[in-house]
Amino acid sequence: MALSRRAFAAAAAASLGGGLLAVSGLRRLLAPGAAAGPIGTPGPPSAGDPTGTVREYALRAAPIEWDAGLGGTTRAWAYNGRIAGPELRVREGETLRVVLTNGLPEPTTIHWHGVPVPFGMDGVPDLTQPAVPPGATYVYEFTARAPGTYWYHTHFGYQLDRGLYGALIVEPRQEHLAYDREFTLVIDDWLADPEHPSPDPDATGMAGMMGGMGGMSGMGGMMGGMGGMMGGSKGSHLTGAPRVQPRYDALIINGASSRTPPELSVRRGDRVRLRLVNAASAQPVAVQAMGHDMQVTHADGQPIRPVTAGVVVLGMGERLDVLVEARTPGIWPIVAFAAGGLRATALLRYEGVRGTTPEPIPDQPDARSALSYEALEALEPLPVRDPDQQHAIELSGGMMDATQWTMNGRRYPDTTPITVHPGERVRLRLSNMSMMPHPMHLHGHFLQLVGLEDRMRPRPALKDTVTLGHMGAVTVDVVADNPGAHWLFHCHNLYHMMAGMATELRYA
Ligand code: C2O
Ligand code: CU
Fold it and tell me: Residue 219: its pLDDT value, please?
């Protein structure tokens, strides 16, 4: 039986947040932690010197009719006429130049998720640039210094939920992984009719609780819907006019639902690299490669000590690179699972295998073998020292109204900004007091995952998005190494961000 949306999201995020992944949502009680590690000089994982080479791409954002294989087309918005948008590739040290043309009926911008770009290139309308008006062109240009799997997406209003995203790969000068083939799988939650989304009744904590108290979940849905209608009056790109997150019709991988799955052709004996990107607006996903284990090598593009997992979970905005050894010939589904029984597949097809029938797809991922944040350790540990400032941020909302999402009880832009001086190390303890998971993303900087549930970690992994499950707590360090006026720090649930779960990192 499929889990409810909220239960799935909570369970998925529990595994991310460091607790035991239990489909029931139970969490392991964890011992309190020790002190921080030794002192040292922080820095990005790789500071590729500019090579002088410029790699230029043109992206045109425009409406399209897209067939995701659901038996009809969707009025979507996309880059260069496809979903996902084109994969952009650049080598470490090269300059990426993207000429964006806006063919949409409203303004737009592009954000380079996870890439520590200069402030003016960050693509947040009003904060880092004026939005690009319809018909206009805008040039983004920055040197790609930190290799890894990233992605790009619009940062204007609810546009992300219409399809404006794509993968961005910064190839290292020296690859430390040996592999034969690679594929990028961009996973998204899909609305068949993005112009008329219906609210998801599981989008509030209250809805789930009431469901549990005697089948009153319809009530929660109603309240959610009312919340949507009663939302803020003034609409801006980031605040105002909050909405309840919609009920999704499908999960898609590289623009296709499981009815028309993308095929990954491999030979027996290949080491296959998969770059997994969760581009969904509101759904954490669990990914399982049937018949194969995955060796996870990178989290949010940054190398980790390789760790084997049967299932990996990605909050919205997160990426994982995994290696799969092709040793069991067949046609194997790689399945992405989300709440409410949503599934998408890609097919790992061994060359020479006859037949067309893939191996069966389970209803649910095998939760026992899921990777948790506990397993994430940096491949090359960065120095950690005591922070110059510490802040606690409590995430909450959604209890009575699915359009009220807060950081320390306030909604953006009324949240308290984090003010830093260049070179400082800031420690943020994030805790999630709500029923929904929150993938927290900081622009322009990496997050060092120094603590889980208040236990300090020995080799903190470097990420840019960390997901907290219900009652989860994580501690992250930010090194203030990229001056800028307003770096956004927000939940990557698009609907939570738009409803106020955001703040800014500001350089004094
Ligand atoms: Cu993918 Cu503001 O971010
Ligand atoms: Cu959130």
Answer: 29
CB atoms near residue 468 (< 10 Å): 27
- Considering only CA atoms, which of 446, 501, 451, 500 is closest in space to residue 43? 446
**How far is the C-alpha of 76 from the C-alpha of 60, rounded, in Å?**
14
3-class SS of residue 344: strand
Going from the Cα of 490 to the center of ligand 1, the distance in angstroms, rounded, reads 8
Do you find a cis peptide bond into 2, omega within 30 degrees of 0? Answer: no
Give me the residues near ligand 2 (ion), CB cutoff below 5 Å: 438, 491, 493, 496
Question: How many C-beta atoms surround the C-beta of residue 368 within 10 A?
Answer: 10
CA 19 – CA 28 distance, rounded (Å) = 5
8 A C-beta contact, residue 371 and residue 288: no
Task: Give the CB-side neighbour count of residue 357, counting CA atoms within 13 A.
Answer: 1
What's the rounded Cα separation, in Å, for the pair 466 and 4?
23
Which ligand has the minimum distance to the alpha carbon of residue 112? 1
Query: Residue 145 pLDDT > 60, yes or no?
Result: yes
Q: Dig out the tokens for 210 from the structure.
A: 């009431």
Peptide bond into 413 cis (omega under 30): yes
For 363-463, list the strands marked E by DSSP: 389-397, 405-407, 418-420, 425-432, 438-442, 447-452, 455-456, 462-463
Q: Is the CB of 237 under 6 A from ligand 1?
A: no
- Taking alpha carbons only, the member of 193, 186, 166 closest to residue 73 is 193
> What mean pLDDT do residues 257-277 have?
97
Which residue owns the Cα nearest ligand 1 atom 1? 113
Q: Can you give the pLDDT at residue 183?
A: 98
Q: Which two tokens stand for residue 284?
A: 């954490």
Q: How confident is the model at residue 4 (pLDDT cuts 50, 70, 90)?
A: low
